[in-house]
Input
Amino acid sequence: MDYSKEYNSKLVSAEEAAKVVKSGDIVKYGHFAMAPTYFDAELGKRTDLKGVRVYSITFPGSAQVAANDPESDHFIYNNWHFSGGDRALHDKGVCHYVPLLYHEYHQLNLDHPEVHAGDVAVTKVAPMDAFGFFNLGTSNSGIALDMKMAKKVIVEVNDQVPYALGGFENCVHISQVDMIVESDNQPLLQVKPVEPTDVDKKVAAYVMELIEDGSNIQLGIGGMPNAVGTMIAQSDLKNLGGHTEMLVDAYMHMIEAGVMNNSLKPFDSGRIAYTFALGTQELYSWMHMNPQIASYPVYYTNDPARISSLDKVISINNGIEIDLFSQVCSESNGPRHITGTGGQFDFIYSAYHSKGGKGILCISSVHENKKTGEKKSRIVPTLAAGGIVTMPRTAVHYVITEYGIVDLKSKSTWQRAELLIGIAHPDFRDDLIKEAEKMKIWVPSNKLV
Output
């Protein structure tokens, strides 16, 4: 069947597409690199609107609906997980975080249609194929649900978007689309791997001690997970699997090095399951029509029951600070929001319930202020005022700094304090002991090992 006539009948300019939005509407943007940047620029010019709620996840750059509206007179911009641009907008008071355990995205939207049933859903897509399908490219996440719940569906076609094989819910058919916008075909947001520091490499070396042949690897974002992925790719490990929310360049390197073949997985055999990708152009090119990876909605990849049904799940994530009670903050600096919960809880909790699995939080022992050179311990007596508990102490498993590995499961408060102080930077240990004594979580028999 030739879909060209239907395609042309639905083809409009970005300016015309933006006119479909009315005051009071809810607009759902595509997630991560699939955010409709071309459409957003036009919608951001609509100063005639009032009370439009826009929802996004990790917008690439600065969302114009918020940047152009410093008093939020026209748009209220909401985000489930911050990018650097979202963080800057939050600092200006025009970006608002939506707390989320990522695996619950679909349930939250379905349970609260009065909040999340969008009037308009718009996402970036790959060019239409011969069967009338637009591929959702690097981000599956919850976009298919957003489109199903929306009254109007708009796609922003970009020929830089890779055609990502499923999995499922990785495409939308032209029959489900109301308007088509052909964009300026700008390259997608690229996230280059952070060059690991010497500290990152030391932490990664400890992580490597916990990985066995046949492990299933989940990597978060940042220098430490990237350092681990690089070490894995250069190791002699065998028959690794990949099951993750975020597909990063390290997975490509592990596949190409032959250490990850996904051969032992009881499902998705031979494939890495993921829900979104952020990386370099090399990664996006590698993804195109690649049968070694499978794009799934987040309720599949991040489902605790599914994750824990895999053996030897190794979940590797970052933290901002951890207190002596072992509460972990991974998303804020005091009340200043930095990122989001994302799938950290989903994977660390589930890894512990995996046979032979390990949920690992990696953290450098100190943070150095780039302007002043002041160093502060990331292991603290209590979290900073306003700091968000991303991982409750009940769910924390392994914690690693450049000074060692500790397993906090089944440990009492005084044992946790002792173990954490033992991997803190030596310059801060005495003060931490004094604070632990004040908080009644230090006993006379405690010692640092």
Summary: The mean pLDDT is 96.
